[in-house]
Specification:
The chain is an alpha/beta fold and about 400 residues long. It is about 30% helix and about 25% strand. The chain folds into two domains: about 1-60 and about 370-409, Roll (Urease, subunit C, domain 1), CATH 2.30.40; about 60-370, Metal-dependent hydrolases (TIM Barrel). Strands 1, 2, 3, 4, 5, 14, 15 and 16 form an eight-stranded mixed beta sheet that branches. The chain has an eight-stranded mixed beta sheet with strand order 6-7-8-9-10-11-12-13. The chain is globular and about 65 Å long.
Length: about 400
């Protein structure tokens, strides 16, 4: 068992920070309390006691959108496994089949306080495959996996156009990108209907299509769709298609979201209160937005109106906002730096801390086990020397499932 005492605990539960202790019975948090730990907690023979000496105790940080392990550090083509740019529709691909678990960026993430990453394929394809939610330590991908099929990735805008336009292959327009996405979703729905009909008739399904099998949980609402979109028109296309097919989704990057924050807020509130969006037929449900990368240049036309004010404006509108690094665009260990930039530009400190913890967990579908410090959740924890949003603060210790995983000494 693990006892952390004398800590400045920031639980991310809505409760203000307090001075107290935490008891973990690996892999879970067993008890959290104010002040000194009761004497009975220190009676266990196998108890490991850590005196935090007033350090900040935070839930492990979560990068809600990156490509760690799929674009390996220091390698070019041989280490680039994030884009299968041969077909715009590849939902059957699994991030876990491409992850290089020995990538140096995993221990760097851990040393930066990032204990969990939502990592997966890039945005070359309209439908790129499944993202996985991984711990940032482990000998095998299986050891690291929190949720193997955490979300499906879709992409709108420039990237699919550029990749396939160079090959003189569809899509070369935004119209074609949207049409390809709609067609794949429609074919998946037809596939689901056929399976259901045959099951009722007690007849076997004689054909199997891995693409539609992979997409089916998105149509049934069991899995979120992560939709890559930067420009306002692409963001609104994402909302439109999600409403047409009844999708539970996030908008990832959402670079120009601040220009339509009021519209996105209405869409989010409709999903929250009515269980569906505002569009016609309005069946979709926007879970929130995952913004970033913030620490990067305007490398392409659809980024020309990017600003670090974006997360703060969206959060002020009442939309759940997570912050990403989009590693390798911004190295994953600089997630806290990205959040600090958002605070500099108007986001509140609490919103920024939540954007790396509980909000990220919710938008990754993992808030029941990660993202906050409370009994019953996994004991993925970080001790910071001070406020993580202060560039001078250091990571003193990291715990994964209640066991030490990193120490600065």
């Amino acid at each position: 068992m693990l006892l952390i005492k004398n800590a400045d605990i920031h639980p991310m539960t809505g409760r203000p920070a307090f001075h107290g202790y935490l008891l973990a019975d690996p892999p879970f948090i067993r008890e959290v309390g104010s002040g000194e730990p009761p004497p009975h907690l220190t009676d266990h023979d196998a108890l490991q006691v850590v005196d935090a000496d007033g350090a900040w105790l935070m839930p492990g940080l979560i990068d809600a959108h990156c490509h760690v392990g799929l674009f390996n550090d220091g390698l070019t083509f041989e280490g680039h496994d994030g884009n299968e740019a041969t077909d715009p529709v590849t939902p059957q691909l699994l991030a876990t089949d491409g992850i290089y678990q020995d990538d140096a960026c995993f221990p760097e993430a851990l040393a930066g306080g990032v204990t969990t990453v939502m990592t997966g394929p890039g945005s070359a394809n309209v439908l790129a495959g499944s993202f996985a939610l991984l711990r940032t330590a482990g000998r095998t991908v299986e050891d690291m996996t929190v949720i193997k099929l955490a979300a499906m990735k879709a992409a709108l805008g420039e990237n699919p156009k550029q990749v396939y336009g160079r090959k003189d292959k569809s899509p070369i327009t935004r119209m074609a990108t949207a049409a390809i996405l709609r067609d794949a979703l429609a074919q998946t729905q037809a596939y689901i209907d056929e399976k259901d009909f045959l099951a009722k008739e007690e007849k076997p399904m004689t054909r199997r299509d891995g693409r539609w099998e992979a997409l089916a949980p998105v149509l049934t609402g069991e899995r979120m769709l992560k939709i890559h979109a930067h420009r306002t028109d692409d963001i609104l296309t994402a909302v439109r298609i999600a409403n047409e097919f009844g999708l539970h989704y996030t908008i990832d990057h959402c670079t120009e979201g601040y220009l339509i924050a009021d519209l996105l807020a209405l869409e989010y509130q409709a999903g929250l209160q009515q269980g569906c969006g505002l569009g016609k037929p309005g069946l979709g449900r926007l879970a929130g937005v995952i913004t970033g990368p913030l620490l990067s240049d305007r490398s392409k036309p659809e980024l020309r109106r990017s600003t670090i004010r974006n997360p703060g404006i969206l959060a002020a509108a009442g939309i759940p906002v997570a912050i990403m690094t989009d590693h390798p665009v911004v190295p994953v260990q600089y997630l806290t730096v990205s959040a600090a930039l958002a605070v500099k530009a108007g986001m509140t400190e609490q919103q920024a801390l939540e954007a790396m913890t509980i909000t990220s967990a919710r938008l990754c579908g993992a808030d029941k086990i990660l993202g906050s410090i409370e009994a019953g959740k996994l004991a993925d924890l970080v001790l910071f020397s001070g406020n993580p949003l202060d560039f001078r603060s250091t990571v003193r210790m990291v715990f994964l499932q209640g066991k030490p995983a990193f120490s600065e000494t």
